[in-house]
Amino acid sequence: MKPETDFYNSGKGDCLVNSRNYPPEIKSYLQSEKEVLKLLSNKLKGIVEVGCMNGRYVEWALAEEKLYYGIDIIERYIEAGLKRLKKSGIHLSRVNLQVWSANSIHEFVIQERLSQVLLFFLLIVLVI
Q1: Whether 47 contacts 39, CB under 8 Å
Q2: What's the Cα-to-Cα distance from 11 to each of 7, 51, 74, 113, rounded to whole Å?
Q3: CATH 3.10.20.30 fits 3-127, yes or no
Q4: CA-CA distance, 81 to 5, in Å (whole number)?
Q5: In what order do the strands lie in the sheet with 67-72?
Q6: What span, in angstroms and rounded, lies between the C-alpha atoms of 100 and 53?
Q7: CA dist 50 to 24, 44, 45, 47, 119, Å?
Q8: Residues 6+ apart with CB under 8 A from 19
Q9: In a structure prediction context, what are the per-residue pLDDT tens digits for the chain, which is 128 residues long?
Q10: Which of 38, 39, 90, 116 has its CB 3.0 to 4.6 Å from that of 45, i.e. a possible disulfide?
Q11: Contact in structure between 99 and 78 (CB atoms under 8 Å)
Q12: DSSP code of residue 88
């Protein structure tokens, strides 16, 4: 394992990404994320959620009729997301979950030929 992924690959970091453990400040922050998405929604074809874990905003994207690209460096989070989506019957034609590093996000944008999508890094956003 790479040092930057050991903590989450080992499961030690799972308590940090479990919403039941979030203090009010994190819950408020996540609500702000949803507000940003809502404000920008009509200008976008889709979103790229960087650090998506198991596809946190995939249901939002599909409800808004947007394409969803979720990337994370932790393979087991991506696998869990794909399994969850298949189990819930969500058609994967508008969803792309894959292991990818934010360090090479420019390569992902080129590979997927993205335009009019929101690159969503927590509350840091870029529209391309």
Answers
A1: no
A2: 7, 16, 10, 34
A3: no
A4: 18
A5: 95-99, 67-72, 46-50, 117-121, 124-127
A6: 11
A7: 23, 16, 16, 9, 7
A8: 27
A9: 576 678 888 888 888 888 898 889 888 888 988 898 899 899 999 999 999 988 989 999 999 999 999 999 999 999 999 999 999 888 788 899 999 998 898 899 889 898 888 888 764 444 55
A10: 116
A11: yes
A12: T
Beta-ladder partners of 114: none
Residues with Cβ within 8 Å of 51's Cβ and at least 6 positions away in sequence, in order, are 71, 72, 102, 121, 122
Assign residue 27 a region (left: φ > 0; alpha: ψ between -120 and 50; beta: otherwise): alpha
- Which tokens hold the place of 72? 């994370």
Please tell me the distance from the alpha carbon of residue 53 to that of residue 5, in angstroms, as a whole number. Answer: 12
Residues constituting the chain: 128
Query: 127 forms bridges with which residues in the sheet?
Result: 118
Beta-bridge mates of residue 87: none
